Amino acid sequence: MKTIKIAIQKSGRLNEKSVDLLKKSGLSFENYKSSLISPVNNFPLEILFLRDDDIPEYVQDGIADLGIVGENVIAEKEVDVTYLQKLGFGKCSLKLAIANHSDINVLADLNGKSIATSYPVILNNFLQENNINAEIREISGSVEISTNLGLSDAIFDIVSTGGTLKSNGLKPFAEVMRSEAVLIGKNGIAKNPVVFELLQRIQSVLRAEQTKYVVMNASKENLPAILELLPGIKSPTIVPLATADWVAVHTVIPEKDFWDKINRLKTAGAEGIVVLPIEKIIL
Ligand code: ATP
Ligand code: MG
């Protein structure tokens, strides 16, 4: 069978998390920094290490079958690929930003102004949708200093915490798109059995990352109130303890409402709560 190729970022913000995800999915490979291709020892897959900008086109053209890349880069390249899975890392937002003292107040004020960006395609689509006629100045990096240099009236760039904007005397003005890393595939590749298997494994890792395994003790008297709070995958496991009328309850809890759940369990009478990470959840 032809070896499937997956393209990931060679170095940068997505590299480590992409490598981690593939390793947690049970793939064994060397994370060579110097080579472009790394074979996987225990799965029919090869890993291509590329600049993130090249990944969407490589996948569209079938040079790679799969790729891990930010949605922002896919949107900028306007490629025709299949979205297989959102991956939950590399989260950021693409925003328009203006100087703190700018006279721009509403979107329409951008008419006739200049906007510096490294994402001209996404920006152009946004401006067209909003009937705004502004000049796009494409620059490849350090977009945030362009207003100070008098190169543009506004910028359009990736913002995560807003710290870089602030230190350059800018403030966010409008959010145009949110982005996170996604697994994409060449059209039609989802039917390939190797891809299907890899996707199952990746999904089992993602599911596990969003949940915790929780064990707690409770008296039988408090059990109904505790069970009311617990969905579990099917239902919680209840194990008798050596002490009469006490049980241990085992369950999984979604990370997002974790603290809220734990506090409510304590109030309902749960004691000795132990929380464990989960490696994989295979449904
Ligand atoms: P390459 O050398 O591969 O072209 P790059 O410099 O273009 O790398 P990085 O800065 O490593 O790219 O960012 C890769 C991706 O990480 C971005 O396209 C975006 O999807 C995501 N990302 C998440 N948070 C941020 C952030 N604060 N700044 C920039 N990118 C971010
Ligand atoms: Mg890049």
Automatic annotation (TrEMBL):
Q: Which residues form a coiled coil?
A: none
Q: How is its activity regulated?
A: Feedback inhibited by histidine.
Q: What is its main location?
A: cytoplasm
Q: Pathway, according to UniProt?
A: Amino-acid biosynthesis; L-histidine biosynthesis; L-histidine from 5-phospho-alpha-D-ribose 1-diphosphate: step 1/9
Where in the cell is the protein located? Cytoplasm
GO biological process, alphabetically ordered: L-histidine biosynthetic process
What this protein needs as a cofactor is: Mg(2+)
Q: Name the keywords, alphabetized.
A: Amino-acid biosynthesis, ATP-binding, Cytoplasm, Glycosyltransferase, Histidine biosynthesis, Magnesium, Metal-binding, Nucleotide-binding, Transferase
State if Nucleotide-binding is listed as a keyword.
yes
The protein's GO terms of the molecular function aspect are:
ATP binding; ATP phosphoribosyltransferase activity; magnesium ion binding
Q: Which reaction does it catalyse?
A: 1-(5-phospho-beta-D-ribosyl)-ATP + diphosphate = 5-phospho-alpha-D-ribose 1-diphosphate + ATP
Q: Which GO terms describe its cellular component?
A: cytoplasm
Q: Which residues form the ATP phosphoribosyltransferase catalytic domain?
A: 51-203
Looking at the record, the residues that make up the Histidine biosynthesis HisG C-terminal domain are 208-280
Question: SUPFAM superfamilies per the record?
Answer: GlnB-like, Periplasmic binding protein-like II
Under the heading InterPro entries, the entry gives:
ATP-PRT_HisG_long, ATP_PRibTrfase_cat, ATP_PRibTrfase_CS, ATP_PRibTrfase_HisG, HisG_C, N-reg_PII-like_a/b, N-reg_PII/ATP_PRibTrfase_C
Q: What is its EC number?
A: 2.4.2.17
Please name the top-level EC class of this enzyme: transferase
The entry's function note states:
Catalyzes the condensation of ATP and 5-phosphoribose 1-diphosphate to form N'-(5'-phosphoribosyl)-ATP (PR-ATP). Has a crucial role in the pathway because the rate of histidine biosynthesis seems to be controlled primarily by regulation of HisG enzymatic activity.
Stated family: Belongs to the ATP phosphoribosyltransferase family. Long subfamily.
Q: What name goes with this protein?
A: ATP phosphoribosyltransferase
Biological source species? Solitalea longa
